[in-house]
Amino acid sequence: MSDFQPTRAIITGSESGIGRATAVALASAGMDIGITYLSEPERAEATAAEVRELGRQAYVEQIDVSDLATAGAVIDRLVEQLGGVDVIVADAGTGDNAPFLEMTLDQWRHTVSTDLDGAFVTIQAAAKHMVAAGNGGRIIGITSVHEHQPRYGSSAYDAAKHGLGGLLKTVAIELAQYGITANAVAPGEIATRMTGAEDEDPQTIDRPGVPLGRPGNAWEIAAAVAFLASRASSYITGVSLPVDGGMLQMGPHGGSHITSNDWRSA
């Protein structure tokens, strides 16, 4: 096991959901946290308050990761405030849903520029600081089960998440020489605002098609991120870890048991 001991992390999109849970999980693991938000500063400050209650420092910055000319500078500011960066978690994301033949170019660009281009810019900015510091690092992207399997009506989202997975694999082989690992966490259905279940207990939601029978909790994703951000993951790089309750295992079984064409809708 390496002697890497992370103490400073940046999580994009950490005002709610998976990002917020990840910020708290990494603070619990002893890290000061750089928090970013798009349009809800009060939610970001609530995340910061949770981090500070754990005795760690929290710094908050607004970012639009799809604004490629400014996103990198926001990461630079957080690195300066933190005094460096050991972990970057690219969580900020969105998804425009429409059948392929109906998807507009604006919808396509909105999703791809946020989920892929924005991840590239923010990850690269943090990685440059990691390389310059010479202490190694952890790069983690939040992709999706749709990094691995498509969903009807999600061409832009599927393409962006496939692309982010490929980017992280390339980063893994290029930055390994600097002691930096790069991995993805690929959530299934998680009870967050993005899935319309932000305030619901996933244990109360029935999902017969998922082997574990329910959606996941944001904290279950955060736990996987925390492992990949730790020194315990020192020999893991270039992988995508599905955290999906077994969803991805159901392809052939699900296909043979679907009894209507209801799935052909976005």
Automatic annotation (TrEMBL):
Family from the record: Belongs to the short-chain dehydrogenases/reductases (SDR) family.
Name this polypeptide is given: SDR family oxidoreductase
Organism: Curtobacterium pusillum
